[in-house]
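Dear all,

This email documents one entry for the complex benchmark we are building for the journal club exercise. For each entry we list the sequence lines for every component of the assembly. Then comes the predicted three-dimensional structure of the complex as a token string, followed by one or two observations. Please use this as the template for your own entries, and keep the labels exactly as they appear.
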Amino acid sequence: MEHQVAAIYRAHSRRVLATLIRLLGDFDLAEEALHDAFAAAAVQWPRQGVPANPRAWLISAGRFKAIDRLRRRARSDAAMSELAREIEAEGNGTGMDEDHDIEDDRLRLIFTCCHPALTPDAQVALTLRELCGLATEEIARTFLTGAPTVAQRIVRAKAKIRDARMPYEVPSLDELPGRLETVLHVIYLVFNEGYAASSGTSVTRGDLSAEAIRLARLLVELQPEPEAIGLLALLLLHESRRAARSSHDGDLILLADQDRSLWNRAQIVEGAALVEQALRSRRFGSYTLQAAIAAVHAEAADAAATDWRQIVGLYDALLRIEPSPVVALNRAAAVAMRDGPAAGLALIDAILRGGELADYQPAHAARAELCRRLGRNVEARAAYERALALTQQEPERRFLLRRMAELPADAGHPGGAVVI
Amino acid sequence: MKYLCLIYFEETAMDALSENDRQTLVREANAYEAELKASGQMISSSPLQRVATATTIRVRNGKLSTTDGPFAETKEQLGGFILIEAKDLNEAIRIAANSPLARYCSIEVRPLPLPKPGEALRCS
């Protein structure tokens, strides 16, 4: 039975929480109520059996427990008793058990956690805490910060939601595109943090990527907008390469050198189908285009068979939607594959002259690769060293050192200092 | 719930507007404020004189200090305010964003104290 309650907790706790926040109008009160409801279930269910609709039981129990708590607090704060009365009155009228309303509650929770009036850090922390149910310590561990920092972010975010009176609602249709963008960005940040840890010794932190995919699935299920579908596709296609991305020693392996038999076929098939679906809508954006690029890679039998013409075309489209130097850099790398390293290098040098990517490690790593392929070894070494100076991640550092060591010896110079 | 919308802009950028653009902006802003007044969402509003007219005072240890200009030197200056009544932050953001001033200015949306505790986050 204990086992059964734990399974129900995993399956329902986030849904129950989302609805309790609506009914109680307060995150902290709802969390306490959720805890109380499951504590009550752990006592009652073994004696009386699991109710037919455990979710409705938990929501109802949580609501009554919260009213009790408010009444107890009312002894010191009169406003609490009025609040308890209001919650009681509201709950009796509305259809609390309607599944439709309860599904909407999860969307309300997503849009509230990812409200653009919160900082991106707070959006991510709140999303992982409230929607994924991660403990503060777990969030702190995955982001390599202290638990007090994360706790403070969450407390501040909840205080702003309460004090500025952020409503618990799904945005109206005319506001949806802008608000959805923030939600997609939060999910993307969570995934990226799991996919390429920005610092530290491990290349991937799978748990966060799995949470991001779960969130993207939930969003697609609740609000199947083309870009949400595109984002889910992108995450699945990236995730499909996880096993091939690093060696047993934790070393980074480039796309071209990966063992494609290690790619997850089921994720590729699902991702590619979602890309098609998003593209057909003709209302797609940058996530869908990035997913389409990932799908072209995923569908090539080996690196040599990659359709670079199509990839450059997709980057052209992406650059029109999102004219950023990072997109231009990726396009330049694709052009290098289609037209040769000299053509790619000319584009990268032009981008670097723009100045915005002067301290962007991948730009220098890409320049180094192309110089190496052109036999311009002195320039290649200088670019590798520039990239090395900009990297904080251990596997990336080892990768660059390995590449640099592979350069012909005549390009070396004593002391390692770059003098060009 | 009341929100104070603080309107910030660069005075020099505002000065650079053509006479035609300025008149259009003033006309549109007045029309929008009239609209808010009619819907009962406007409590009070006013433009402010140039920041050059500002004086900051503080009293420390019983001693008054008076200095020229605003408390903080920033690129944008406080140029006006609108005090509005909105049911929640999203409505306040909507009201501020629909103002013609939002195209030229930054608008800080600040809630006044809650009428009573536990009033936040009611479902709408």
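Observations: Chain A has 20 helices and no strands. Residues 81 and 201 of chain A are 53 Å apart (CA to CA).
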